[in-house]
């Protein structure tokens, strides 16, 4: 098989996986009409791919996808379609972190409270070990935005995207964004989707546990939740990496069985 044909088939497989990922994240309510998933081009590491500016659950074919240059977040080829205004979130992360191959940006209502409070979002259970014992970083755009562009909370410039990108490292996979949501990085589409879903689940669990602790424990005891320590979080993260295909295959079957989603890639 010629190399060009092999590369085309590989990209086709990634496109199909990406569209499934958009549908899974919508079905899981990690994304609604807003938020986005992206992936690094498997054959051109200085290119990343996102959908056009549309609700993730409605993405259905490669015609809905736009390839962008990592360097400047501009389309690789001319397109009549409008792209996401916040694609600098993705371009700046891919630019700084060569090992990141997929990104999710979400406005999950379960997670937003942790972006505006002093409560750290930390790994509560074994499915969210990637959050770590220290907890997710918090990014405040007010510290980085250009005053001339207004304060709409969107990451739309190289400066704000770069500042967000610097919050990620080998110990931080998820960054909370004040009054906005969260952004998550991973080395594959499947891993990004799984971790995004379990970030939301962890937030729900932590909020419930803190509420129970506040009701039934002494004053201030919500701070004393028995969460995962460093070793537990690290080994739990490794477990999710080993088993990611199990939930992925289930979720693909679920979105394929629903009449709402279409994937012709």
Automatic annotation (TrEMBL):
SMART domains per UniProt: Aldolase_II (SM01007)
Molecular functions (GO terms): aldehyde-lyase activity; metal ion binding
Segments forming a coiled coil: none
Domain Class II aldolase/adducin N-terminal positions: 16-207
GO terms for cellular component: cytosol
GO biological process: pentose catabolic process
Annotated Pfam families: Aldolase_II
Record key words, sorted: Lyase, Metal-binding
Protein name, per record: Class II aldolase/adducin N-terminal domain-containing protein
